[in-house]
């Protein structure tokens, strides 16, 4: 873990019980400031977080990478699953979200930067592989090239043994861009599972669970 207190330290419990109200306010402010990078008006629900985090190992000392953690709603769910001694890195672009995460979740290894540079950002921290990549990035806002760059980095990081989860909003599936993204996932990974709809989320969403980058 980073030098920010460790997963076994007292800050860890504070993180897991961080105030959801202040998180929601911070999230909404970030959305109003930068709607084109937030892509949502509210943090993911606990239930959606649980489905996203279902690929996080509960044993051993895994390395988990989160992309676009926002205010840390999903980070908290991941943290509760992770065994002591694990690593949990979170790559976030928005400086205000980075500041919020460092305040509210002091034991998370916050990595400020663009997820398009994922392999480099991780290599700078001595990480070349992750057991799981849990992603909250707003895919619908990215063009095809950006999606391809992101998926190439994620594929390199999970390798043949890791897993990648990300979510999409149900209402968005009517849009051609969302259908294209699903096809891109199916071309990029040998295994792409689609979860049941998580109705207890605003708006309702579902999760893609992807494994084994296609060659
Ligand atoms: C829809 S929010 C999801 C937040 C959180 N994971 C959740 O589910 O509540 C998207 C987050 O991705 C971040 N983001 C957008 N583009 C990014 C990029 N290229 N690299 C890293 N983070 C990015 C935004 O700043 C925002 O915090």
In short:
The chain is α/β, with parallel strands linked by helices. The chain has helices at residues 10-16, 20-33, 35-38, 46-52, 73-81, 95-104, 118-123, 144-158, 176-188, and strands spanning 63-67, 87-92, 109-112, 132-135, 163-169, 189-194, 205-213.
| Alpha-beta content class | alpha/beta
CATH class group: Alpha Beta
Estimate percent helicity: 25-40%
Straight-line distance between termini: 33 Å
What Rg do the Cα atoms give? 16 Å
Percentage of β-strand residues? 15-25%
The CATH architecture assignment turns out to be 3-Layer(aba) Sandwich
Structural summary, described in words:
- This protein is α/β, with parallel strands linked by helices and 215 residues long.
- The protein has one domain: Vaccinia Virus protein VP39 (Rossmann fold, 3-Layer(aba) Sandwich).
- The protein is 40% helix and 19% strand.
- It has nine helices and seven strands; from the N terminus they run ααααβαβαβαβαβαββ.
- The chain has a seven-stranded mixed beta sheet, with helices on both faces.
- Strand 1 (63-67), helix 5 and strand 2 (87-92) form a beta-alpha-beta unit.
- Helix 4 packs across helix 5 (73-81).
- S-adenosylmethionine binds next to helix 3, helix 5 and strand 2.
List the helices and strands and how they pair.
Blueprint: H1 10-16, H2 20-33, H3 35-38, H4 46-52, E1 63-67, H5 73-81, E2 87-92, H6 95-104, E3 109-112, H7 118-123, E4 132-135, H8 144-158, E5 163-169, H9 176-188, E6 189-194, E7 205-213
Parallel strand pairs: 1-2, 1-4, 2-3, 4-5
Antiparallel strand pairs: 5-7, 6-7
Helix pairs in contact: 4-5, 8-9
């Amino acid at each position: 873990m980073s030098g920010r207190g460790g997963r076994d330290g007292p800050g860890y419990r504070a993180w897991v019980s961080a105030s959801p109200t202040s998180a929601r306010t911070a999230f909404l402010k970030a959305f109003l400031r930068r709607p084109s990078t937030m892509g949502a008006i509210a943090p993911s629900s606990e239930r959606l977080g649980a489905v996203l985090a279902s690929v996080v190992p509960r044993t051993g000392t895994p390395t988990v990478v989160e992309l676009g953690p926002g205010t840390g709603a999903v980070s908290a769910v991941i943290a509760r699953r992770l065994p002591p001694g694990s690593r949990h890195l979170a790559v976030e672009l928005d400086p205000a979200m980075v500041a919020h995460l460092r305040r509210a979740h002091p034991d998370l290894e916050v990595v400020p930067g663009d997820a398009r540079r994922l392999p480099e950002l991780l290599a700078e921290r001595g990480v070349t592989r992750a057991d799981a990549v849990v992603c909250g990035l707003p895919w619908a806002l990215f063009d095809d090239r950006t999606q391809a760059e992101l998926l190439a980095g994620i594929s390199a990081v999970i390798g043949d043994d890791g897993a990648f989860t990300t979510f999409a909003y149900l209402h968005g599936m009517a849009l051609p861009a969302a259908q294209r993204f699903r096809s891109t996932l199916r071309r990029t990974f040998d295994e792409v599972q689609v979860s049941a709809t998580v109705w207890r989320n605003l708006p309702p969403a579902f999760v893609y669970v992807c494994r084994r980058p296609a060659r």
